[in-house]
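Shall we go through a protein fold together, starting from nothing but its sequence? Label the sequence line and the structure token line clearly, so we can match residues to local backbone shapes. Would you write everything just below, so we can both look at the same thing?
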Amino acid sequence: MDLDLNELEVVCRDLYVRALKILPPDIKAGFSDLQARETSATGRAILGTMVENVAVAERTQNILCQDTGIPIYNLVIGRNVAFDGAGLKAAIRRGCERATKEHSLRSSVVHPITRQNEQTSCGIRVPIIHVDFDARDETVSVEMIPKGSGSENGSFLQMLLPSDGINAVKRFVIDRVIELGGRVCPPTIVGVGIGGTSDLCMHLAKIAATRPLRSACADEDGARIEAELSRAVNELGIGPQGLGGRSTSFAVHVEIAATHITQNPVAVNIQCHSARRARATLTPGGISFD
């Protein structure tokens, strides 16, 4: 299949808007799970308000949060797909620009030194584009994540030593959640990267933070640690919006990579309660939106 770049441009435009306006079903289910377990009257009230805000936004076709985020596009390209790499990047950027201009979205992207805003949600190396490959035939999946600043500011990296042990990894995660409190708009998804290099570890944490709820780390040991941390985080009493309760986090997700024998990096990246993302799949039979 030849990837139609004009089609990709439109998909990337539409995914940005869908991500800003429609909360994924797994996050809605996550709210229901938290409401069923919350024992604090204040916590239950705040969760109820959050759920109502989502319903109002979707009913009136407004965005879920005023922060349109840093646009991230994750592509997974299957076998027997022909495409122009430079053209692909340009098409994604055009789609991002069109979403911002055609739907009058606030552009949250500025130059890091001059703070100049192009009003397109684009800038140097933005949108952020990740491309991976898999074995599916003639298939391209595109995921769009508008990563808000409030949660992205909850990002940390520590280069631990192997002698520190796995308890140091857990302690680092718990301490960062305590430090952040209500500043990252809990209930959150706490993404944890373990291993790799410093840059890969941070990337793993972002993957973990934006992974669907009720999914598990593919590595058995990683899955065990994320289950332990998920329970521990919700015993901290931070609660929704930091005002107390057991609903501090939907889940803690862990992703791992092999690392060097003399190091053990750990990273944390937070996703707020408005855990926005949208996905589309392109095949010779057409386009489907998840």
